[in-house]
Amino acid sequence: MGTYVITGGASGIGAAIREQLQARGDTVVVVDIKDADITANLATGEGRSSAIAAIREATAGGIAGLVTCAGVGSHLPDRALITQVNYFGTVALVEGLRDHLVEHSASVLLISSNSAPMETRADYVEALLRGDEEAATAIAADMPSHPVYSGSKQAVIRWMRANTRDYAAAGVRMNALAPGYTRTPLSAAVEGDPTYGEAIKAFIASIPMGRPGEPEDIANAAGFLLSESAAFVCGSVLFVDGGHDAMLRPDQF
Question: 31 vs 7, 9, 67, 141, 208, CA distance in Å?
């Protein structure tokens, strides 16, 4: 048993992970924009800094893991917000807590997406990876929303892979989950969107296993990656998408 911090843990996938960890006896500290133990807006530098300080205080006795589940969907017209929350809100927390995570040999689980391999702009992803928030949001402003979303999730995985060696050497395992379409309040908003709704319904119909994911499907995978059973799993990306990624990219792995 240990103490885990989950960003975006108030609803959807984050809430399902929270419930699973609590059911096995762990303590969970939720960071979210509302209905949370730590209320913070991860879209802003000030919000990230306040979240980091509050997490350190709440887990002064030890932290077993950090799950970065806070994110917003591609249906939002505010492309800057997608960029700020999905990428910078994730990476800033991991980097800002690095010494704390190292001290307690904690694990990190980043929630990405099976949209991460989809086409996006290389200059946008590169701006994200070099930490240039101003440039990344400026580029995102001229892009359609979905490539902004997929690019933010791709950059999360690429950041994780680039930093796995250093974190692992310091005793911190990092892995990523890439959920497919999952029934959550966020995905329901996208499915009901007049612009994206029909495309999303067709996307759901094409899932090889014949159904969308449920938050519990993602939570089950998260529980494994955060457990001692996954003690030698490090730097991995686990697709939990009913076979969608394999169908769309059969020659890549």
Answer: 4, 6, 10, 27, 34
- Asked whether residue 206 is domain-assigned, the answer is no
Cα–Cα distance measured from residue 218 to residue 179, given in angstroms and rounded to the nearest whole number: 7
CA distance 43 to 141: 16
34: CATH: 3.40.50.720
Whether residue 194 is contained in a domain is answered as: no
What is the total count of domains within the chain? 1
Q: What's the pLDDT tens digit per position in 215-229?
A: 999 999 999 999 999
User: Is the pTM for the entire model greater than 0.85?
Assistant: yes
Residue environment code for 88-97, b if the CB has 16+ CB neighbours within 10 A, otherwise e: bbbbbbbebb
Domain region containing 32: 3-181+214-242
Residue 222 maps to a domain: yes
Query: Is residue 80 over pLDDT 80?
Result: yes
Catalytic residue of the set 149, 167, 181, 196: 149
124 is catalytic: no
